[in-house]
Predict the structure.
Amino acid sequence: VTHSIPACIGSMTINSKQLDDESPVSIFAVNKCYETVQDGTFFDGNGFAALVREGYKVRSDVNITLEFRTTAVHGVLLGVSSAKVDAIGLEIVHGKVLFHVNNGAGRITATYEPRGTNTLCDGKWHKLQAHKSKHRISLMIDGNLVHTDNPYTQSTSADTNNPIYVGGYPADVKQNCLTSKSSFRGCLRNLVLTKGQHTESFDFSRAFDLRGVFPHSCPGAEH
């Protein structure tokens, strides 16, 4: 087993002596356990999760679904890029959700803007679905669908080969379809990427790099 246990551990004794977990000698990627906890993974606004070390190939089609909860109006949700311009990106900018795709010919963006007094940054769960099929892209938030026109109809494949970065990305990593450098603060859950008949559900506790991310531990209220 190479990944940590996604759980809370308390009241540990060795040879009848209780360990003091309040003042450890060293600590790494361990957070407090919350009194009230929800399903989800907590992002503290300073880091990211890196998935698929060998690189994720978006190519012609991908369908991304996830749920998010935040009170921040800016934050990276997800990015997959290449060394060239091909990439996809999902981000929250000024309270809007943006889905960017570049198949090589130029970036196109589907934007979801909440109407009236509605806000996506209210600390409540919102469901997101981002779909790319060849040159067509769409974005659906809480059942509300947004399409966008793509003038680059001949370019259909996003030839990405980098890891999937969720909630942010390292300073030395290039992301061609993200405009924000702000790491996400809040909770994410149920991240699923589907290509054709292949559906992949991602467990953040199995990420190969986690910084400021606490899998399977989402505080019941914003901390």
In short: The chain is about 0% helix and 45% strand. Residues 13-219 form a domain with the Jelly Rolls fold (CATH 2.60.120.200).
